[in-house]
Amino acid sequence: MSRFIWPKKLQPCNLARRDWLWLSTLATISCLQRQTRGENLARPRGFGRAKSVILVFTNGGQSQIDMWDPKPNAPLDVRGEFQAISTGVPGIQVGEHLAKVSRVLDRCTIVRSMSHQDIDHGSAVYLSLTGHYHARRSSNPPPRPTDAPTLAAVMRRVRPMNSFFCDALHLNGPVLAPSEPSAGQYGGILGRAFEPMLVSGDTDSPNPLGALQTKRELPNGRLSERLRLKQALDGSSSDLNISTSAVDMDRWYSQALDLLATPKAREAFDVQSEPVSVRQRYGEHRSGQAMLQARRLVEAGVPFVNVIWNHCSRGQDFSPDDTDEYGWDTHNDIFGTLRERLIPRFDQSFSALIEDLDQRQLLEQTLVVCMGEFGRAPRVAKEPGFPGFAPGRKHWASVYSIVMAGAGVQRGAVVGASDRLGAEPITARYGPWDVAATMFNALGIPHSDMYLDLEARPQRISDGSPIEEVYGT
Fold first, then answer.
1. pLDDT digit string (tens) for 158-197?
2. Kind and range of the H or E element at 305?
3. Which residue of 95, 144, 178, 378 has the lowest C-beta tally within 10 Å?
4. How far apart are CA 133 and CA 137, in angstroms?
């Protein structure tokens, strides 16, 4: 039976009788529906195996054929320029430029039959980061208060972790698709208060919270006095209560104060305290340091970390000389871009994350999920209307690949398969809604539970089902 998770402002004792009747009826109907469908009420495999989740989001759509699901026997205009190489797992091949990743795949599972029906970045990012289709499918919609909440916001809503300085973060964001912040990474119907903390990726500042270090000349007593003065000034202006920007500023101010008061938080963000060899191992660039930051955060006990591996889906159009700006949206010039810009950094940082978690005995309690919003087409062709001189691959959502590791996920396995051209799944299909269910299930949160949004409307945590196959038989 689905459970309801109550917001603080709407505890059961505050409900009117008609609300009790309505919710009780809804819960009863949900239970009867599940019994009619014959659902197994036992916990799915992998339930509660993770203390933390790291979602590595590869903005723009990685090419599954050139990376995770090579087709060496397909025609040249399908398989592309790259060769397939063997990995540490017999029978599993990946693209030739994933040399370091190939050595850690004995700790991972590749899911090769992901599939959905959205083929534009903005709405597909929304689908990936919320687990729900956008009302304007295959478009680039702006964020709206009526959006579904991002997964990290749902995490904050259903399991607030008061023992930590933060229970959900987005690192190296926001997601730009292609140049404006995408829908799907905010609080939506849960409101701004439940949005995850956003830490942008600034390689000029290895410790993004360096400005929040306490000063010797500002002891706790003076800090408290300043806070009381701020509250008094805020209270004298009724306009602040109706100003959206003022409310947001107050929320950010509160977060900053929480961090100032929590040495553990400041230490977790201090990537510079890592040995130089470790920082170099991940890669001294935006993506690599964000991955290292994620490891430090789960080590500190943060339950949900969403690493935006690359903030731009296609930043190469605007900054062709800055590799930090490159995204996986490779309509043209795909092979040079992957070979020289994207895959080397990904190969370095993703393999370092898996190895580091494993060596620190964190992998068995951390679920790592690497995914983008879709894949790339199984045909190499020059696409008019996009910059570039050499052929590339267009968007492709019919089949693509993701990677999972840790928290009981099989080591050295493949789940699902695509056809000989990498165009469609030939096994069971999985969608972003199933990935969302898998992550919550791993954290010990029943994916079918209900919570109430700001308008007291019941919302299901996930409409998908955990991908139990990643845990073996």
1. 988 766 668 899 999 999 988 899 999 999 999 999 999 9
2. strand 304-308
3. 144
4. 7
Residues shown for the chain = 473
pLDDT tens for each residue of 217-262: 555 556 566 656 656 666 666 555 555 555 554 554 555 555 555 6
8 A C-beta contact, residue 150 and residue 129:
yes
Which domain range does residue 421 map to? 48-208+265-445
Residue 383 to residue 391: CA distance in whole angstroms:
7
Name which of 407, 427, 381, 456 is nearest 190 in CA terms.
456
Task: State whether residue 357 is helix, strand or coil.
Answer: helix
Spatial contact of 322 and 67, defined as CB atoms under 8 Å apart: no
In a domain, 10, yes or no: no
Q: Is residue 360 part of a domain?
A: yes
Domain with 356 in it: what CATH number? 3.40.720.10
DSSP strands (E only) in 363-418: 366-371, 375-376, 395-396, 400-405, 413-415
Q: CB within 8 A of 386, min separation 6: which ones? A: 331, 332, 392
Please give the tally of structural domains in the chain.
1
Q: What is the pTM of this model?
A: 0.85
- DSSP summary character for residue 384: T
Q: What is the 3-state secondary structure (H, E, C) of 405-452?
A: ECCCCCCCEEECCECCCCCCECCCCECHHHHHHHHHHHCCCCCCCEEE
Query: Is 301 within the bounds of a domain?
Result: yes
Residue 468: C-alpha distances to residues 111, 408, 431, 441 (Å): 11, 11, 13, 10
Distance CA 58, CA 352 (A): 16
